[in-house]
Write a structure and sequence with these properties.
elongated, 291 residues, 10 strands, 12 helices, Rossmann fold, alpha/beta, five-stranded parallel beta sheet
């Protein structure tokens, strides 16, 4: 445990902000620190709000997924992706009328992200006591996480992130880097067909062990979609914290330009999908030294 008082992040949608604030106040009275800023967080120059959220989730000992009848699934999904990538302990907290279905959303992705997580109903005093006890319980020592079970002897030096529609472009980059001797993880090429839970665990393990990150995109929206954003934000957070030393490189395809990239990616290298650009990319991710 990093501090005597455990630290918690409450993942919630804007529609549940008042409930999250009340939950935060209740946890605070139990000497549990909540990292969400419910007054006002003023971004410093160069900061990105989503990076601040990622850093807070990374710091948290426990993540609470707050779900109510009014929950906007997309708001919670974006935070839960990051919590999953960072291997955080997650508890689902239901608030409001407890008669509705569990969880009360139609999003299959949110259901998958929360599957297997313990849950409590905040309205019930007994279960709130259980929640406090769960958060305060010291986390067990984690064994070294295994490499992806599908190829336990492979160490991936480069992790490639892309939206599925950009796979043909990513495959071209993958083939080039492989020809230069790089050990590259691209999910479609590196993993056989496995169950969804094992598939996600293997991707998380590859992201965690990789020294370099290569993001491939044909348009800015693709870099902010689904797991793509979660992957590069988690990797950048690890790099900023000093846990990773390698490079982050975006491969620009179909006329995408650096000025259109999300601010956090714009800070790092970007190369076009050309012969010259690929040659530069190889220098960034196959050399022994990193920035």
């Amino acid at each position: 445990m990093k501090n005597e008082e455990p630290e918690t992040w409450i993942a919630h949608s804007e529609s549940d902000r008042d409930s999250a604030r009340l939950l935060s106040e209740g946890l605070d009275r139990q000497r549990i620190s909540v990292l969400n800023d419910y007054i006002e967080y003023r971004l410093r120059s160069g900061e990105d709000e989503r990076d601040v959220v990622t850093q807070s989730i990374s710091r948290a000992d426990h993540v609470l997924a707050l779900i109510s009848p009014n929950t906007n699934a997309e708001d919670v999904i974006s935070q839960m992706r990051r919590a999953r990538c960072l291997h955080k302990a997650i508890t689902v907290v239901f608030v409001g009328n407890c008669q509705w279905a569990s969880p009360p959303v139609s999003s299959t992705e949110l259901v998958e992200l929360l599957s297997g997580c313990p849950h409590v109903y905040y309205a019930a005093k007994r279960t709130f006591v259980d929640l406090v006890a769960r958060i305060k319980q010291p986390a067990p020592e984690e064994p070294d996480r295994p490499l992806p079970q599908t190829d336990a002897h492979t160490h991936y030096g480069v992790f490639m992130s892309k939206k599925s529609e950009d796979y043909p472009l990513a495959k071209r980059v993958y083939d080039f880097l492989r020809s230069k001797g790089a050990n590259v993880f691209l999910s479609e090429e590196s993993l056989p067909a496995v169950g969804s839970a094992e598939y996600m665990k293997a991707i998380d393990a590859a992201l965690e062990q990789a020294e370099h990150l290569v993001v491939v995109g044909s348009k800015a929206d693709n870099l902010l979609s689904g797991w793509v954003e979660a992957e590069w934000r988690v990797f950048i957070n690890e790099k900023r914290s000093g846990r990773k030393q390698g490079n982050v490189v975006t491969v620009l395809c179909h006329g995408l330009t650096p000025d259109l990239l999300p601010m956090s990616l714009r800070y790092y290298e970007a190369v076009p999908l050309t012969e010259e650009g690929l040659a530069r990319l190889a220098q960034y991710v196959t050399s022994a030294s990193s920035k």
